[in-house]
Amino acid sequence: MKIWQDVASLYQIYPRSFLDTNGDGIGDLNGITEKLDYLSWLGIDSIWISPFFVSPLTDFGYDIANYRAIDPTFGQMEDFQALLKKAHNLDIKVMIDLVPCHTSDQHPWFQESRSSRDNPKRNYYIWRDGKDNSEPNNWRSLSGGSSWEFDELTGQFYLHSFLKTQPDLNWDNPEVRAEIKNIVRFWFDMGVDGMRVDAIWGISKDPDFKDDSTNPDFYGNPDNYGAFIHDRCKMGPHFQKYLQELASVCDEYNDKQMVFEFYPDDKLGDIYHQYSQILTVHPKASAFFMEYRDNEWHAKNIEKKIENYLQSASSTTPFFCIGNHDQPRIVSRLGEERARVLSFLNLLTPGISVIYYGDEIGMMNGELTADDIRDNFSPANSVVDSRDLERTPMQWNDSQFAGFSSAKPWLPVNNNHTKINVDSEKIANDSLLNMHRKLLKLRQTLPILKNGDLSIVENTGNGFILGLKRGLVGQRAYIFINFADEKQSFSVPENAKIITSTHSVNLITAENLQMTIPGHCGVLLIVQ
C-alpha cells in the first residue's frame, strides 16, 4: 500500500449522488465499492467520502447523530468495511469526513445537554443567558439569522454557527476534545487512512463572547451575515492549539493524514497568513487551496495565488482543488474551455490534486426547479443559491437515469447526460475524461509533477501566459497556460519536449525557443 507521501490525487465522492445499487434513488456505499475499478482505471490513488453517518439529514449528513455508525440510507458497517478492503487492494487510500464543530440536535450528547442545567454533558455545548431580553450577542449563523436559539426547557440559548439543528460543540471543554479524538481513533483503528476535517474555524471563539464588529463596507440588511466582521465568533485564541491537538492523533499511527476545510477571511487580515497558521499546525495536516472559487481569470493573479499558497504551506503537502460539494460546478462557473484548462493546471501543481466527482467529465450544475430542491441551508432558500445544483447524480451513461439508478433519483439527472457521461468520454480520445486520465497517470509515474519544486517563469509574453517551472533532482518540466481566448506567442526558457496538452499538438508551434498556443490552452513540456 502506498504511503501518503506518494499519493498524487484525491477524488471527492458525495455518496448520495455517486451510484445507487439498491434501487431507492439514493447513492450508497456499495455503489462506491462497485466503481472503485473505474477510479483505479482513471488513475486515482485516494478518495474522500462525504458523510455517511447516522443523521436526520437537515444538513445532508453534516448534522451527525452518531459518529460511529452508518446511516441505513447508505448501508451497513459491513458495507463500509468491504469498501475499505477493496480500495486498499487497488492501492487507493480512503479519507472520510470529520465534523468537529457541531453535532445534530438529535445526538445523545445534546439530548442530555439540553435536559437540565446540571447535566454532566451540559458543558459539551455552548449555553448562555440572554442579554437585555435578547440573544447573548450579535453573532450570525451562516445559514441566516442569529447564531443563538432559545431553549425553553432550561431557559437558556444555545449557539449554532450553522443551522439551529446543528448546535456548536464546546471545544474549550477538554472532555469534548477527548471525545472527538476518540472518534478519529475509532475510524483509524478500522483502517481509514485520513480525515477531511469540516468547518474548523468554529472550534475556538472569543472566550468573553463579545459582539462581532460591524462591517463598514456592507450595504444592505444590517442583520445579514455579511453585515459583520466575524472577529469574535471564530478563529479564537486557542484555534491553532486545538487543531494541533486534533492532528496529533495521527502521530499514534503509521501514515495517517488530515486535511482541513478552511476558507480564509480577508476581513481578518492577510489570507495567506491565515493559510500559514493552518498549514503549519502539524506535519500530518494540511488545508485545501480554495482560491479558485473566486472565478478570477487573470494569469498573473492566479500565478500569485499559487505561489503564495505554496509559500504558506512550506514543507506541508499542498492540496489543490477547483470544486467541492459546496461550490457551483467549475464548468458552470467558467465555461467548458476555461474549466478544461484550469483542470489541466490543477493536475500539474505540487502535492495532491483534488477532483470533485463528475468534474473529470465536465458535469454542469443541475437544471433544478424549486420543487426539486432538497437542501434548505441557504438563507435565501432559492434555486440559484442551492448547493443541490452541484450535487446531482453522477453521469455514467446515456440511459434514462444516467446509469446512476434504476429508479427516479433523489435529484434529477442533468439532461446533458446523453452527451456528457463516462461511457461516451471513455471512447473519445480528446475528451476531458481522457485528459484527466493521462495527467493522473503522469502524476503517478513522474515524481517531478507531484514532488518537484515550483517557480514562476518570467517574461513569458504579454501577460496572458502563466508559466510554471517544476524541478526535481536535475529534472525540469514546464507548464504554460494561455488565459486569453486567442492564440498567444511567448518565449520558452530551454528546449523541451511537449508531453501533453489540452489541445491537439497540431495546433501548437514551437521553433527557436518560441511557442504559439491556442486560446485557453495548456501545455506540459519536459526537458529530455
In terms of DSSP E residues, the strand content is 15-25%
Task: Work out the number of β strands.
Answer: 23
Distance between the termini: 31 Å
Number of helices: 13
**How do the strands line up in the largest sheet?**
1-2-5-9-12-13-14-15
Q: What is the CATH architecture term of the largest domain?
A: Alpha-Beta Barrel
Please name the fourth-level CATH homologous superfamily of the largest domain: Glycosidases
Structural descriptors:
about 525 residues, alpha/beta, TIM Barrel, 3 domains, eight-stranded parallel β-barrel, 13 helices, globular
What would you say about this model in short?
The chain has 528 residues and is α/β, with parallel strands linked by helices.
What report would you give on this structure?
The protein has 3 domains: 4-101 and 174-441, Glycosidases (TIM Barrel, Alpha-Beta Barrel); 108-159, Oligo-1,6-glucosidase, Domain 2 (Oligo-1,6-glucosidase, domain 2, Alpha-Beta Complex); 452-526, Immunoglobulin-like, CATH 2.60.40. It is globular. Helix 7 packs parallel to helix 8 (299-313). The strands form 6 sheets. The protein has an 8-stranded parallel β-barrel with strand order 1-2-5-9-12-13-14-15. A 5-stranded antiparallel β-sheet has the order 16-17-18-23-20. A 3-stranded antiparallel β-sheet has the order 6-8-7, with no helix packed on it. It has helices spanning 29-34, 36-42, 77-89, 108-113, 174-190, 239-247, 271-279, 299-313, 330-334, 336-346, 422-426, 432-445, 447-451; strands spanning 9-13, 46-49, 53-54, 66-70, 93-98, 127-128, 148-151, 156-159, 194-197, 213-214, 228-229, 257-260, 285-289, 319-321, 352-356, 453-456, 465-472, 475-482, 488-491, 497-501, 509-511, 514-517, 522-526. It has 528 residues and is α/β, with parallel strands linked by helices. The longest helix has 17 residues, at 174-190.
